[in-house]
Amino acid sequence: MKHNSYGQRRSASLGETILRFLLLAVSIALILSGFLPLLSKAFADAPDLVQVKLDASQIQPRPLEQLTGQAIAKTYSNAWKNMETALAENRPDLIDESFVGYAHDKLAAQVKAQQARGLSTRYLDHGHQVDATFYSPEGSAVQLQDTVRLEIQLLDGGKVIASQNVTRKYIAIVTVVEDSWKVRVLDSVPGF
Description:
The chain has 192 residues and is an alpha+beta fold. It is 46% helix and 34% strand. The protein has a 5-stranded mixed β-sheet.
């Protein structure tokens, strides 16, 4: 009789241990399922973003809709990231994704000139303060005034040969092209 009682206690103890282990495993899985997406977002997306703060409070002649403003800020951020990567890696194909017209031609020529000299340019972007100043009546173009802080490095074969920290002002025109926004003009100016 004692043998049966010992076996039952041992079986019950083993069952409780398995149940505790399963509960612990489920708890850890739940914690990780909520935590891992936050970590991947924090570490994976951060390098791909260029910080753009868009202020459309003074825009004329019409107000900028919230969704349009968000789309323009994202487009402008992506355009800068594509431009920075194109200049750093001498990849003119990246310019096609975000630029058209004058801005496209100017950047493509800059990449071509760098390639011919064996140089590249690296931008360390410290953020953009962008004021939307004009929104065309038909809604197809927005003018931006951008104040950006950058470290610009000139590289020869991967070695930095010159570097400078600058605050620059840019005028940009973002237009609708084939149902999406693209940068048509991006010019450095002495002031607004």
